[in-house]
Amino acid sequence: MPTLYSAVGPSARTVRMFIAEKGLKIDQQEVNVLAGENLSDEMIKLNPGKQLPFMALDDGFILAESLAICEYLDESYPEQPLMGSNAKERAETRMWCRRIDLRIMEPAIQGTKASDAYEFFKDRYFLVVSGAKELKTLSQKNLVWLEQQLGNKPYICGQRFSLADIQLFSFLDFTKSLPKELTQLNRWFDAISARPSVAASQHPSVKV
Question: Are residues 19 and 98 located together in one domain of the fold?
């Protein structure tokens, strides 16, 4: 059985929620990123990327990146597929995950690191301070675009709950950055919030 190295934050939450949705029992080891444990020599030896989450497979291979971990789990445990049941569905899920990552999550994360969270991240990452405000604005504009794409559909991929829903929910629940005027996305968010996997994947440090 693989071991998931997890932490507070939306990416690790994505994997925990994915695991809960599939009903898997995966060993988990908590890493305190606030204390910089992910930057220790031991952790860097395991994962030179220094980020969480990552997964140690049974053969010793280290798999990083939350979406890659989820795809691995979906293929390894194909019951209740969350990527899709055929090539078209899996491609659709990847399309939306990439859009959410590049258009919404990454601009907001980089913008926040270089502004509101600058003191915490300044010695950990290269930060582009001059573009922080614009990056956060870009993320919000792309949420408006996503609102239009979602329409009255129940899920990001239409009638099918998928990794794309888990990824976006984990990000928005962590950042509390969903404007109230985006009514379709708020409807979607409230519906996802009622799923048992949400409570099951919540980080212990977060008070419900």
Answer: no
Q: 142: which 2 tokens?
A: 């792309």
Q: Name the one residue in this structure whose structure tokens are 């928005």.
A: 172
Structural domains counted in the chain = 2
In degrees and rounded to multiples of 5, residue 157 shows phi and psi of: -95, 35
Tell me the three-class secondary structure of 51-95, residue by residue. CCCEEECCCCCEEECHHHHHHHHHHHCCCCCCCCCCHHHHHHHHH
Task: Copy the structure tokens of residue 170.
Answer: 């984990």
Rounded Cα distance between 67 and 150, Å, is 21
Which CATH number fits the domain that encloses residue 177? 1.20.1050.10
- Give the residue numbers spanning the domain of 29: 3-76
145 and 68 in a common domain? no
For β-strands 54-56 and 27-30, DSSP reports them as unpaired
Q: How many CA atoms lie within 13 A of 193 on its CB side?
A: 10
pLDDT digits 0-9 by tens, 155-186: 999 999 999 999 999 999 999 999 999 999 99
Q: How far apart are CA 150 and CA 77, in angstroms?
A: 29
Looking at the DSSP bridge assignments, the partners of residue 56 are 3, 62
What pLDDT is stored for residue 50 in this prediction? Answer: 85
Identity at 185, one-letter amino acid code: L
